[in-house]
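Final report, results section. Input specification for complex C-07:
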Amino acid sequence: MTTTAGHPVREAATAQPAPGRPPRLRDRRLAVAFISPAMLLLLTMSVFPLLWALYLSFTDYSATGNAPASFVGFANYAEILTSPEVHQRALTTLVYVVGAVGLQTVLGFGIAYLISRRTHGRGLLTTLFLVPMMLSPVVVGLFWRFMLDAQFGVVNSFLVSLGLEPVEWLTRQRTAMLSLIVVDTWQWTPFIMLIALAGLTAVPKYLYEAASIDRASEWFRFRNITLPLVWPLLLIAVMFRAIEAFRLFDLVYILTNGGPGSSTETLSFHVYKVAFLGFNTGTASAYGILMVLVVIVLAQLYLRYLNKLKEG
Amino acid sequence: MAISVDEAVPAPPVPDDARRARRRGGTGRAVVEVALLTVVAVAMLFPVLWMLETSIKEGQDIYAVPAKLFGFDVTLDHYKDVFVAPGGGRSDLSVALLNSVVVAGSSTVLATLLGVPAGWAYSRFTLKGEKDQLFFILSTRFMPPVVVVIPIFLMYRSLGLIDTQLGLILIYTAFNVPFTIWMMKGFVDEVPSEYEDAAMLDGYTRLQAFWRFTLPLLVPGIAATAVFALIFSWNEFVYAIFLTSSQEVRTAPPAIAGLIGGSTVDWGLVAASAVVFALPVLVFAYMVRKHLVAGVTLGAVRR
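Structure output:
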């Protein structure tokens, strides 16, 4: 092989067909060029705002006032963490998250199990069940508000025709929370069902066949084959729903507006009131940052677990 | 799988009687299961049917006590009200629906343009801290919108983006990009990278290989991803209500929610506008039903 000027023999021998810079370096540049626009957008629209909120959380800034923000240290955080109002909202949120996600999990998995045992009409059933999940929370909230109306709501109409007392669903403290949980469950049970169904249909048939040759009981099969194989995927769905429920705002806003009193005010809703009705931007920012911390912890758990599932 | 010794020992043949009994038990059980599924299906679909029914009912039948399931007077007036203003001309709702088309459409195009190349790059190259980057990207999607909207509101106020469609398009793009990247990474993973390697051996650059050989294979995946992004922005409410206020700019969700603001609520109109608003979503969702699991988990779970 003859060497061209400036090119040592060894490099020419291993050179790629494409001329110019080594491919690996060009690949890296291409990757940077392809990824950075998206990253830049996320940095300006997600990270920068959160950093700004972090800064504001240490000030007494008010979005309506003309006074410049002055530094108040951790006062906002101390106020939030010691406020009985906030504790109350945290408890409300917890009740809501546990109640709604718990109910969705049980129902969603139950429905998925029933569907997975059918051989006919599975596709149709699944498609029909998924309708609530695809609707906007605005549509869902408005419509249930109409159905739960104390005077002309169809739910009370049913109750009366069954000989029961009508219920003031959205204007009594206990039933308002219950209504919120029921509506959220109506909308999101399909989500759990969809993912549980994906897990159930992925269970290899031969395991069941082996078990039935061994005359294993139905319960044994469920307990030792179905559940262990579906559980990891189900847990993903549950964690996902828990994060979503924790940050819920729109359904509360439409359905109950936090009321009656503050009985259905979740943390998200309370942040909104502090920020946009009270205009305590500094306090609201501290409040929001604390919520973000919770979400980050939950999201990290979720992603770690997801990663483990993918690798395992 | 652990099976204990007793269970593993083959059992004596089952007598005919018992087998028949079990089969009968089996059909009985199947009947119960089908009945249960029917009850659940009715409970799930009733609100949707009720919404459809309310949207075509005459005014007085909507407020009838007890509620009229059947035998009501049918009218299409509510649908007319969605599109036509009382005095003629275009109604506020139709303007809002059009705004929704513009905002959701543009943000979907932008998110796709930004997300597809990034998803491809994350799939094809091993990058420093790639896993952390991907985690970070998805984490931004989990932020509570009510919290993010506080600094975004201040930011937009100083940039003059409050109550503009551009503002909404930008924030919707930002919230769809993480989803697009994760979803597309999954689709690119399914296309063998050998195609690109082969093309590069033929003298194409990496970029040409991506453009000519991988991208055409990704088109169905890109379409599905874009449809989900479209649904997410179409349905979005929180940013819309805080960042826009005027009639000319606001999208359909706040406009529909605004219908219940007054002292009297025209539920027929609410139902009709909800149907008009939700119908495209259901059609689109049906089109991408094969990818629903990946779509609704933001591209995290793939089957």
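Chain B has 14 helices and no strands. Chain B has two domains: 14-83, 92-296. This concludes the modelling results for the funded period.
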